[in-house]
Amino acid sequence: MNIGKLLKPTNDYVFQRIFGYIGNEEITKGLISAIVDNINITEIKLDVKKDLERDLKDDKLGILDVRAVIDGEIQCNIEMQMIDRRDIENRILYYWSKLYTKSINIGEDYINAKRTIIILFTDYEIKGHEEIEKYLSKWHIREDEYSNIILTKNLEMCIIELPKYKKYASKNRELSTWVKFITSPGEISMEDMKDNEPLKKANKVLEEISDDEHEQELAFQRLMYEMDKKAIRAAGYDKGVEDGIIEVAKKMLQQGISIETIVECTGLKKEEIEKLK
Questions:
Q1: Rounded Cα distance, 83 and 63, in Å
Q2: What is the pLDDT of residue 241?
Q3: Do residues 138 and 97 make contact, with C-beta atoms less than 8 angstroms apart?
Q4: Given a cut of 80, is residue 3 above it in pLDDT?
Q5: Which residues, listed in sequence order, are joined to residue 46 by a DSSP beta bridge?
Q6: What mean pLDDT comes out for the span 7-31?
Q7: In angstroms, rounded to a whole number, what is the distance separating the alpha carbons of residues 114 and 146?
Q8: What is the mean predicted confidence (pLDDT) over 39-59?
Q9: Residue ranges of the domains in the chain?
Q10: What is the rounded distance in angstroms from the CA atom of residue 208 to the CA atom of residue 6?
Q11: Distance CA 276, CA 243 (A)
Q12: Which are the contacts of 89, defined by CB distance < 8 A and separation ≥ 6?
C-alpha cells in the first residue's frame, strides 16, 4: 500500500488497536520487552474494553489505554498521550495507585501485591523534563542519599517522550526501532523488521487498518475528540485571561487611575473601559 496513507500510531485509537487488541499479544510482548529491564515474558494477557467503538462514538471515553497481565504476576498499563494536559505526572501516579490497589483483595497480606508498571508515551516533551537528555526515562522510589537502593520493585514508571527520539541516540536498538515505527511508520524498512517478528506483525496490522475505511473513520473521530478538547481548553484559557484583564481594569478605575493609563497597561480600548464605570 501507499505508505503515505498509513495511520499514525501516535493516535491513541490506532495505538490501542495495534497493541491492545486480542490476538496481538505477541506484538505487545515485543514492545514491553524492549522497554522494561529484567523481564522475561512467557505469557501475556490483554484486558480489553468490550465496546471500544461504542465509547468512541458516544464521546464518553477519556483515555484509551492498553492493560496487560504478564505471566499472571505483573500488571502493566500502556498509554499513548497525544495532547499535553500539563498534569500527566500526577495522572500516571493515580493510574498506578488504582492498579496496584486492585492487585490484592481486602484481608490479603501486602506481600501478595503485584508489581505494577506504567508505560507512558507522550507525543510532546514534558515541561520540567528538559534536563533529561534521553527519550526513555524510568522512575522508581529511591532513597535520597543512596539512590542506588530502590524501596520496592512494585512501582515502576517508564516515560517515552517521542519528540526527543531524534534528538538523543539510544543504545537500545530494539526500542529505537519500535519508536521509529510509532512516530514514522512509513520509514520502517525490511532491515528494521529483520529478526523482529512482533514488529513485522505490528506493521502488518497497521497496513490492514490503514486500508480499512471504517478504521480510518474511528481514528479520525478520536483525533477530532482530542483536538476539540484542546480547543475547549484553549478557549477557556483565553476567556480566563480576558476576564482577568477586565477585573484589573475595574480595580484601576476604582483607584482613580486615568483611562489613558489603563489603556496602556491592559490593551483594552477606551470605549471598553468607559463601559466598566
A1: 11
A2: 55
A3: no
A4: no
A5: 68
A6: 93
A7: 25
A8: 67
A9: 3-211, 236-274
A10: 9
A11: 12
A12: 126
Exposed, middle or buried, 73 (CB in 10 Å: 0-12/13-18/19+)?
exposed
Q: Which tops the pLDDT comparison, 259 or 147? A: 147
- b/e code 145-177 from CB counts within 10 Å (16+ = b): eeeeeeeeebbbbbbbbbebbeeeeeebebbbb
Using the structure block, give the residue that is written with the C-alpha cell 505477541. 26
Alpha carbon of residue 69 to chain centroid: 20
Could you identify the residue written with the cell 507522550? 122
Which tens digit of pLDDT belongs to each residue from 89-105? 888 999 899 999 988 88
| Long-range residue pairs from 65-68, CB within 8 A, at least 24 positions apart, any chain | 65/16, 65/20, 65/95, 66/15, 66/16, 66/19, 66/20, 66/28, 67/20, 67/99, 68/28, 68/32, 68/44
Q: Do 151 and 141 meet the contact criterion of CB atoms below 8 Å apart?
A: yes
Q: How far apart are CA 15 and CA 219, in angstroms?
A: 10
Residue entry with cell 527520539: 165
Question: What residues form DSSP beta bridges with 198?
Answer: none
What are 66's strand-pairing partners? 78
| Cell 500500500 -> residue | 1
Q: Which amino acid belongs to residue 157?
A: M
Could you tell me where the DSSP H helices lie in 36-149? 52-58, 88-102
User: Which residue stretches of the chain are H helix?
Assistant: 12-19, 25-35, 52-58, 88-102, 173-183, 190-193, 197-210, 213-254, 259-266, 270-274
